[in-house]
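quick one, 528 residues, struct below
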Amino acid sequence: MFLALLYRPFCKKIGCAEKTLALLMLIAANVLSCFRAPPLSELFLESQEIQNLLCPFLLMIRSKQSLFEKSRTRFTAIVFAGDLLFVLAAMLVGHAVRFEYFSEFRPTESFPPLIAYWNHFCLGLLLYTLISHNQHLFRWSVMLSRARTLTSVVKVTALWSFSVVGLSLMLGFDPPISRFFMICSAVSFIILLPLWRFAMHAVLHESGLFENCYRHLVVVGTGSEAQQFAGRVKEGRCDLHRFQGFISTGADSLEEDQLGRLDQLEALMKEGTFDSLAVANTCLPSAEVVRIAKLCEQNFVEFKAIPSSFEVFSSCLQIHNMGGMPVMSLAELPQNRALNRLIKRAVDIVGASIGLMLSLPVFAILIPLIKRESPGPVIYRQVRVGQGGREFKVLKLRSMKLDAEASGKVGWSTQDDPRRLQIGSFMRKWNLDEVPQFWNVLKGEMSLVGPRPERPELITDFIKEIPYYQSRHSVKPGMTGWAQVNGLRGDTSIAERIRHDLQYIENWNVWMDLTIKFKTFFNYKGAC
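---
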């Protein structure tokens, strides 16, 4: 938005071609900034609002700056300083490659000396600082994972490149920025920065500093929710936390991993065996939760509360003010936000249009084969339930005999289903029977990726039997989905399908959609 505001005052300084290029760069940068999703551990370990879920009247607990915080701050400062040096090095390499080693690639009247590019260098460093912060490149969940580091650096590189070129053109820097210089800088950037980050990752793991960065966590409660959360901590999914044990809240107890009872909590705190506590038993009286929170404050222990009131979409929780009181509710789902809807719809229109054009030869081959084996309509229309519970007619290439549901019984096809055509098995294995649904996508009834739509006759029973089934209708259904690429198609567990669908809805991002599309072409596990 800041870049867009700068565009108008400076647009008179550059030509039409440069204006267009700058605008396209800014649009690309804004679109790419949507391609990220929060880590799964963010809900429990970084949200201060959730820590006060059950005690909204408590002041935010402030613990003293521990060795954990000091070590992390120092290490982050070192990484940030190193990042800036390597960004500058990448731009110096880009300048050398463009104007010294490849000076004849695109010859100009005069080549700008290194000092003439100081404004571009300063702009590059400033934009890297802003973009890396926006993309959470200094979050510990990123710095502790080589895979996350590499993924984040690729995103930051794309955003940084587009932003530097776009803003330098709008500001009318002299000399104008060289596009080839920027390409060379971006390539150097994407090589040098991961190498630096990987080196610091090795230093962090090999030194004692890494040990000082851990928090030692206990969980109050021993129920299923407490054990599930503890399991995630043990698996390393909650960054920089190590599980120490459970605190029993009553008659319930465990033979393993139990540190003590709730009435022993203060004594355990004074022993210093843990410095972080999560309440996973919201059946405790409010007064008892307040007492635990006060003990945490007095002993400099980090306090957390797991919001079991929300069993689905818990990472979309937000706190807002109602009548002067803090109220927790579900925020707008990621793909239902205005910009994300626009991006997803644009991708759907482009993808469905290309899909229909590419599928014309498929129609030309399959239609005669279907008619030869089973005369009658080739396109099969079936009522399905879409977003918001609205019904629509989904289109499919017919893979069953005409009298497949003559008995009136509604259900899924099974392996070696006798009602299926011979060509139908092939079509289902390679998802070719779904090709006409590109038209449903163009009409806006479906998306390329989303939960698969079901028939209303089946949904009536599912709503009663499967918890949170209706939540999958909060977004558009898709031609393919997270459940399908994980082998949950046809006669498979509906509960597992719902679990995967809800995971997709809650954690949606553009990269996830692209991954699902790619897997759809190569994963036909469970096809029937």
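Residues 215 and 241 are 5 Å apart (CA to CA).
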